[in-house]
Amino acid sequence: MERRGRVQGKVAIVTGAGSTPGPGIGTGKASAVVLAREGARVLLVDMYPERAEQTRRLIVDEGGRAEVFAGDLTRSADAEAMVRAASDAFGPLDILVNNIGRAQVGTVVDTTEEAWDQAMDINLRTAFLASKFAVPAMAGHGGGSIVNVASISALRGDGTVAYSAAKGAMVAMTVDMAYSHGRQGIRVNAVAPGHITTPMVLSVSAPGPKADFMNQMRSEAGLLGTPGDGWDVGWAVGFLASDEARWITGAVLPVESGVLSVTPLMMAPHLRAVPEP
Ligand SMILES: NC(=O)c1ccc[n+]([C@@H]2O[C@H](COP(=O)([O-])OP(=O)(O)OC[C@H]3O[C@@H](n4cnc5c(N)ncnc54)[C@H](O)[C@@H]3O)[C@@H](O)[C@H]2O)c1
What we know:
A seven-stranded parallel β-sheet has the order 3-2-1-4-5-6-7, with helices on both faces. Helix 1 crosses helix 8 (230-241) and helix 3 (76-90) runs parallel beside helix 4 (113-139). Helix content is 42%, strand content 14%. The protein has one domain (11-196, 231-254): Rossmann fold (3-Layer(aba) Sandwich). The longest helix is centred in the middle third of the chain and has 27 residues, at 113-139. The chain is of the alpha/beta class. It is globular and about 55 Å long. The relative contact order is 0.15. It is built from eight helices and seven strands; from the N terminus they run βαβαβαβαβαβαααβ. The model has no long low-confidence stretch (mean pLDDT 95). Residues 16, 18-20, 26-28, 46-48, 51, 72-74, 99-101, 103, 122, 126, 149, 151, 193, 195-196, 198-201, 230 line the site of nicotinamide-adenine-dinucleotide (NAD).
């Protein structure tokens, strides 16, 4: 029997579907590949089209279908053109993954007004604009699924005030959109990745002992003690986008090895419950 994927025949847009150059895979790139492997035709959107082209090649080499759309989604015209491009290339839109984002370190005191606005533009405005044009397109043919890539920074402090505020607003936007568009058959959910390792994360610290320590901490901080990466987010996105999640909307799915489930104190080695070998 021919295998039918979880999103077989669906039309999907993934924003930020390229990946910062470097080892590993970004969450947008992984989400796009997972959706394509599960049978979707995917529009790969990125302001650096050469990045999205690498994702396209990966998908096409595996026998999937994808096209690249070059655009800056902080611009309304690009967001509108993106939604049109998806339906021109593949047909009516079913799935939107709002994945664009970038963390900025800074407290409320040392974050400049310019950096604040930039964080809101990249992390929030892009999702707002993409959704603004995607929702009517989905509603026009009976519904669809939107997955927002938020962060545990929406829920826990980590010294990135503008980024955290934007991701917190994204969570609020998720539940409000779920409320407003449920009766149009549109489900809206978010994933909240934890301290995963992606090329973007690796690009901000030079290789060396400090980077090695941070990598180790990204694993150790979670209950599982293992590293997470872009694929972990991609698989969660694939599930929420699919009809297997048909009765799930307004949810925020943590993808974080359980870091939200424990107080930091209990992660101290001598307190942690470690089973006897
Ligand atoms: N890496 C982590 O540890 C982590 C943790 C929590 C959440 N996240 C979230 O995951 C998402 C992706 O992270 P990543 O590490 O894969 O990043 P990445 O930089 O590898 O990928 C994001 C892509 O978005 C593109 N992009 C940026 N601004 C754009 C714009 N205005 N218009 C169009 N494209 C644009 C970039 O060119 C890039 O290719 C972000 O939303 C991030 O906040 C990441």
